[in-house]
Amino acid sequence: MTSVATTLPLLTDPADAVACCPPLSASPLPAEAATSLARAFSALGDPVRLRLMSLLMTADGGQVCACDLVEPVGKSQPTVSHHLKVLRDAGLVSATRRGTYIWYAVIPEQVAALRAVLAPTA
Amino acid sequence: MTSVATTLPLLTDPADAVACCPPLSASPLPAEAATSLARAFSALGDPVRLRLMSLLMTADGGQVCACDLVEPVGKSQPTVSHHLKVLRDAGLVSATRRGTYIWYAVIPEQVAALRAVLAPTA
DNA sequence: ATGGAACATCGACGATTGTCAATGTGTTCC
DNA sequence: GGAACACATTGACAATCGTCGATGTTCCAT
């Protein structure tokens, strides 16, 4: 009845969400780091998920109810739910339960970390 | 006998290599743009390909002979060749034939374009 | 022309992915 | 309690992917 916002548990350890940070151009990427980084980029490697990210980023407040993501993306509810889970597992997106609804938001630091990985050789 | 550097034909139209440019945070990504963008991120969504990118970026001169990419990555020659093709198809990498050898290099503008797509809301 | 070396392509294989209908879980309201 | 709604999970399917050995192809040297 309190019905306060409840951040849902992250499915992946936030520590290894993105393996973190040195640009590809700084030093040859070791195999282990490559694996978790690849999972993050892989999460962006689908048109539906890219559009979900864009919807989240352009929404004011930076949050969108899952219910408002199904129609604009043009896929079934289970499919959208699946893609949101992939984004969550990759550590790119957070989910917050507010009553019956669940609000999604991108985690800006994680996206910034991916940007950093692609940075050129200063 | 001239044996000059020969840039191999790009497999994809460079025009739609990355669909180009407005950040995800600027406006909701249309479905068509999402598709070609997804292919680029998807190309980065594999550990071997990320390591290849890193090897190319860290090499001085920014170019590496394909023969020098097989061993550090620890995969068979056909597998490495396949991954290089994926990166080429995504428009992220260029190939230049010099005699018997083929030299690969990342295309910095394309990587920068991906970075731009991930840019936050100014 | 012949041989060899560098790289690409083919064919096959198990593994992963995107999708949906059906069903399950959790919450709110009456 | 029970009905109704929001969302997740399951199970199934075709499609795509990563990998390798075998085979082509292209170039250089002899």
Give me a quick take on this structure:
The structure is a homodimer of 122-residue chains. Chain A has 122 residues and is an alpha+beta fold.
Describe the 3D structure:
The longest helix of chain A has 13 residues, at about 30-45. Chain A starts with 5 loop residues before the first strand and ends in a 5-residue tail after the last helix. Chain A has helices at about 30-45, 45-60, 65-75, 75-90, 110-115, and strands at about 5, 65, 95-100, 100-105. The model of chain A is unreliable at about 10-15 (pLDDT under 50). A four-stranded antiparallel beta sheet of chain A has the order 1-3-4-2. Helices cover about 45% and strands about 15% of the residues of chain A. The first copy, chain A, has five helices and four strands. The radius of gyration of chain A is 15 Å and the shape is elongated. With about 120 residues, chain A is of the alpha+beta class. The interface between A and B is large, with 40 and 40 residues. The structure holds a DNA duplex (30 and 30 nucleotides).
